Amino acid sequence: MTTSDAIGPPGRTGLWQVIRAVSRPSRLAAGVGLLAVVSGVGTYAMVRGLVPYHPTSATLIVLLLINLTLVLTLGALIAWRLTRLWIDRRSGIAGARLHVRLVMLFSAIAVIPAILVAIFAVVTLDLGIEAWFSARVKSALDSAVHVAERYVQGNERLIIADATTWPGTPLAASRVADRSALAADLAAFLAALYKIDPAGGPPPGPHSCHRGAPLTVYDGEARRALKALDGEIDTARAAQVWQQALAATWHGAPVWVHGDVADGNLLINNGRLSAVIDFGCCAVGDPACDTVIAWTYFSGESRRVFKSGLPVDGATWARGRGWALWKAMIMLVDALRDDPEDARATKRVIAEVLADNLRS
Questions:
Q1: CB atoms within 10 A of CB 23
Q2: Residues 83-133: tens digit of each pLDDT
Q3: Any bridge partners for residue 267, and if so which?
Q4: Which of 272, 326, 271, 270 has the alpha carbon at shortest distance from 295?
């Protein structure tokens, strides 16, 4: 065997010696950089549809996480190695300068793939967002909106047609000679409503303006209104009525409530109740909110008839006063700014609530 045979081919031996001269962390960084390039290219190919496989959103998320992990790992390896070199150089270890140059060289080689992966990731994200808002997607969304609008318009026409075919006019625009008869009609309607099976009905919440919920929902609003109305109403008595309403806790079974029994939602025909409309605040809960009309419209005998026809107890009636007082107070705060006529009418409602509380 000759000396040249033992040494091997010069080119091969030189490359191997260079690789062996590089530290393990640097070789690991180069390997991670290579994997990052492969991962980035693969991700780009899948997003662009250059491969027969069609990735799901979960697959793309996994690929992006892999790319991120590789880049972070590469950065950590380079940072760790540079820190070691800085320590060695401060300690005056021989060959530190050469070592720094080698590490910087391999770090640059490793960082370049990382930069390419980052570019691929940005391009991938941009293409993905562009696909979400492509012309086809926009066309599909426009079609869906158009169908929804047509559906709403069609149902709106049906509702208006049904409403206009009902005999009667709103109570707010009607003159009723016998309010006691109307009170009996309305009480009978609500009593029938409360007998409907509430199973599966929506509980009180923002959708129902919290009608059917405990009065504590509006405790903060009521107390702020009491403070704002000092000098305008008897706030001491109003606070007492409000506190009694809060204390009259409801323990009954939940029932269907209309939630907005007002003179604008009651249709009158020949002095009698012909229809109840606008169930937008209906929910399954406490029926106390449905008694508010006892103080906003009824009085005296008609209020007594309304109360006697309802399947409610004294605690529910007390909570009803609370609902009427809360609504009247917050309306009065607004009316005092620019609507004196409405302010006078609202003060009359509050006076009815306070007076009824004294009689109870």
A1: 15
A2: 766 676 666 554 555 555 555 555 555 556 666 666 665 555 555 555 555
A3: 170, 275
A4: 326
Residue pair 82/107 in contact (Cβ under 8 Å)? The answer is yes
| Neighbour count for residue 181 (Cβ, 10 Å) | 15
186 neighbors 273 (Cβ within 8 angstroms): yes
* Token couple for 104: 């910087």
Question: Quick check: 148 and 239 in contact, CB under 8 A?
Answer: no
* Residue owning tokens 């399947």: 311
Task: Give me 276's structure tokens.
Answer: 């109840």
Q: Are 223 and 329 in contact (CB under 8 A)?
A: no
CATH superfamily for 168-359 is Aminoglycoside phosphotransferase (APH), C-terminal lobe (3.90.1200.10)
Distances (CA, A) of 37 to 40, 57, 312: 5, 21, 75
C-beta of residue 309 within 8 angstroms of C-beta of residue 283: no
Token code pair at residue 289: 């909110």
**DSSP string of 282-321, one letter each residue:** -EEE-GGGGGTHHHHT--HHHHHHHHHHS---HHHHHHHH
Strands 272-276 and 169-170: unpaired
Say what the pLDDT of residue 150 is. Answer: 74
User: What HEC string does 254-281 produce?
Assistant: CEEECCCCCCCCEEEECCEEEEECCCCC
* Helices and strands of the chain, counted as H and E runs: 13, 5
For residue 55, the tally of other CB atoms under 10 A from its CB is 16
pLDDT score of 287: 97
Q: Read off the tokens for 140.
A: 């599909």
Tokens of 100: 């720094």
